[in-house]
Specification:
Order of helices and strands: EHHEHHHHHEHEEHEEHEEH
Number of strands: 9
Structural class: alpha+beta
Strand content: 5-15%
Number of helices: 11
Mean pLDDT: 78
Shape: elongated
Helix content: 55-70%
Radius of gyration: 35 Å
Low-confidence stretches: 1-10, 265-273, 378-382
Largest sheet: 5 strands, mixed
Distance between the termini: 49 Å
């Protein structure tokens, strides 16, 4: 039963709107039967009709006063739409059946469900409504007219009325479903656009923080540089210490270059990328910077790379890949595995490490900034999630699709990055 009511974030019904529309319908029903009975003097069971409408009033009062949720669930919506359908059907049964022109209103609940609820519920209401229309064609209380004329309908007309109603029912529901589907696609696209814009806003904010940090670190780094130069002069005769000081100086220079890049507009800082590169060369160059300062190793698999095309230089792809590779390097125990698969249609990069993988509480939130784990065992390695967030944002901006998961073949985490070549090579 629960599988039948598959509620999506789009398949919800605002209670206030539904209650208001039901009040309009109830008032319309009261006015109609009262006008026909008291003014036009048609003879039918007015008390029975009023009782049916009164039950509708009670159900709407329940929704308005007792049902506390702002959004009505699909299951509850189905129940109340069936109440509306049965109520209208009973009124039509008591007032002429298929010959009653108000039978057209039986189409409203199904069309309403098509515009607001899931396909299965809508299909159920359409089928039930069609059965009711056929039933009311042959079973109903006649509606005597105070005006004397031949009330017999032509047989052809009589039987085409339910057929026309069922065709109208199917057509209107198909139209409503198609229209709502397009609206949901547009809404989803808009939500996606807003999400990307929000990520870019956060990224710009991070860029400002990075520039501020670079400015703050400039002074102590300059101090370290001066001291290292003085030590180099004083200890130039000690070859062992001089070698260490030389290494220290080179690392200081490297830090200065990094801080310089952080303090300027990234769009202006593209000179460090020498030329347009193939994806294989991108990966090789990026990993060299990690191999120079650490003792962990990279294992490459380029066997499925049959695409020699070069990619236009873009700092966003470099930084994006570097953040993902750096994250894998940080959490690996010994080795980072990089697999490149590229053909005429797709380019795929898989980055795996031999670490502990993503904690279960973090996995559903991968890609969010300032992400922390509640797993005590991983607190020593709990990051802010900025590396993945920045890498994901930069690569998605350049048409990549990112999948973050735990590896099925190794102990650590796995990042799958995919491009359509027609998008990658036209960047």
């Amino acid at each position: 039963m629960n599988n039948f009511f598959e509620t999506s974030k789009y398949f919800t019904l605002k209670k206030s709107t539904y209650v208001f529309l039901r009040w309009i319908g109830i008032i319309g029903q009261l006015i109609s039967i009262s006008l026909v009975y008291f003014v036009l003097e048609f003879e039918f069971d007015y008390f029975a009709c009023f009782s049916i409408i009164f039950l509708g009033i009670l159900s709407n009062l329940y929704l308005e006063l007792i049902y506390k949720k702002v959004q009505i669930t699909e299951q509850t919506s189905f129940i109340f739409l069936m109440i509306d359908t049965i109520q209208l059907s009973t009124l039509v049964y008591l007032t002429g059946g298929i010959t009653n022109p108000f039978i057209i209103f039986l189409l409203i609940p199904s069309v309403f469900s098509a515009a607001n609820l899931g396909f299965r519920i809508n299909l159920s209401i359409v089928v039930i409504t069609s059965i009711i229309i056929v039933f009311l064609t042959f079973n109903y209380q006649p509606l005597p007219s105070p005006i004397s004329y031949d009330n017999n309908l032509n047989e052809y007309v009589y039987f085409t009325i339910p057929l026309a109603l069922i065709i109208a029912l199917v057509f209107l529901n198909y139209f409503a479903l198609s229209f709502v589907k397009d609206s949901r696609i547009r809404k989803e696209a808009l939500n996606r656009m807003e999400e990307v814009m929000a990520k870019e806003h956060e990224l710009l904010s991070l860029g400002g923080q990075a520039a501020a940090a670079a400015h703050s670190l400039g002074t102590p780094l300059s101090t370290i540089k001066v001291i290292s130069q003085e030590l180099s002069k004083q200890l130039k005769n000690d070859k062992e210490i001089s070698k260490d000081i030389e290494l220290l100086s080179s690392q200081i220079q490297r830090c200065e270059e990094i801080l310089k890049k952080l303090s300027v507009n990234p769009s202006e800082e593209v000179e460090f990328i020498d030329d347009d590169l193939s994806m294989r060369d991108y990966l090789s160059d990026i990993t060299k910077s990690f191999e120079e300062v650490g003792d962990r190793k990279f294992v490459f698999n380029f066997d499925q790379d049959s695409n020699p095309k070069k990619i236009s230089k873009t700092i966003e792809i470099v930084y994006g890949l570097k953040n993902f590779i750096g994250n894998a390097y940080k959490f690996s125990k010994d080795t980072v595995f990089i697999n490149l698969k590229s053909d005429s249609r797709m380019t795929e990069i898989t980055i795996e490490d031999d670490g502990n993988g993503y904690p279960k509480d973090v996995l559903p939130k991968i890609g969010e900034p300032y992400l922390k784990t509640s797993n005590v065992e991983n607190k020593d390695k709990a990051g802010l999630g900025l590396g993945i967030f920045i890498g994901k944002t930069l690569l998605e901006k350049n048409f990549a699709k990112i999948i973050c998961r735990n590896s099925k073949t190794r102990s650590g985490a796995e990042i799958l990055i995919k491009w359509k070549n027609k998008e990658l090579f036209n960047i």
